[in-house]
Amino acid sequence: MTAYILRRLLLVVPTFFAIIALNFFIIQLAPGGPVDQYIAAHSGIGDENVMQQRLSGAGSDGLDQAQGEGGNYRGAGGLTDEEIAEIEKRFGFDKPISERFWEMLGNYATFDFGESLFRGKAVVDLIIERLPVSISLGLWSTLIIYLISIPLGIRKAIKHSSNFDIWTTTVVLAASAIPAFLFAVLLVILFAGGSFLDWFPLRGLTSNNWEELSLWGKIVDYFWHMTLPIIATVIGGFAGLTMLTKNLFLDEINRQYVMTARAKGLTENSILYKHVFRNAMLVIVAGLPASLIGVFFGSSLIIEIIFSLDGLGLLFYETTVQRDYPVIFATLYVFTLVGLLLNIISDVMYMVIDPRIDFEAQK
């Protein structure tokens, strides 16, 4: 197993480099970059007040140069070539694209992601600020889905074609057909001061007086705020995992080794959880990396907007629209690295769950 893990880790390097390089050059060569947006804002295109707030972190010296009397941008009448060159230099676009690429790789190798072009903060600080919301939504929704879907899928396989199987399938499929944003709006109307009850808050991850609460009060306040967003996030996530679990267990239950085990006098629970469970769970284990990535990067933009949550989903959307390259590339870097490593962990888990699987023997 050790030799296999080392080979996979060595393959991570060229794979990672190819993914980062491909995305870097595609994004960099796409029109409408940060320099274009800055120039557009100073040429009277778009809402200058909004752009001034976005560009406030790009450097006060450069902004002072671009402003005239009365706080109006001189660029509203057109920017000179010298001013455009200064903007490109400030954003680092005065260098060749290949030099920018290698410089970025060198910084990212030490996890130095630089600063946002338009927000005046370090990229790491921006991500850390939004991470609690994304972890909250992703972690709790994934945990709830797995805790409900796997036992439910096993039960449906055991009770195949029974009334229990039929009505639970109907409920699960009906829930999955409801769009998450529509269900979120319904929850707001019913339980968050819409037209009926006012049981849950509608804004933020915690209350304004959260720091003053006791430990138990903080826990209660946190889950009080997260109840509706989590319910809205998980409502459509049961169907796929539940039906996958049912079909996998149903397929294993009908295999010859199960009939042999029954003929030997083994109990149904022993057959189910000592033999069938190990074999049926292999495919579900393969999906764990995607689920774990979703914990950090699977924030729902619409859910965050409806419940006024500043998570990574909203941050990534805003920075993509603004072409905030440091945030975009840092996200891509972390996402790719975590994904590659979790794929290796998935293969290791295969071998732990089923010792018969030996990747080292496959040359």
From TrEMBL:
This is Inner membrane ABC transporter permease protein YejB. It is a multi-pass membrane protein. Belongs to the binding-protein-dependent transport system permease family. Pfam families: BPD_transp_1. CDD domains: TM_PBP2 (cd06261). Its main location: membrane. Probably part of a binding-protein-dependent transport system. Probably responsible for the translocation of the substrate across the membrane. Gene3D superfamilies: MetI-like. It comes from Catenovulum agarivorans DS-2. GO terms for biological process: microcin transport; transmembrane transport.
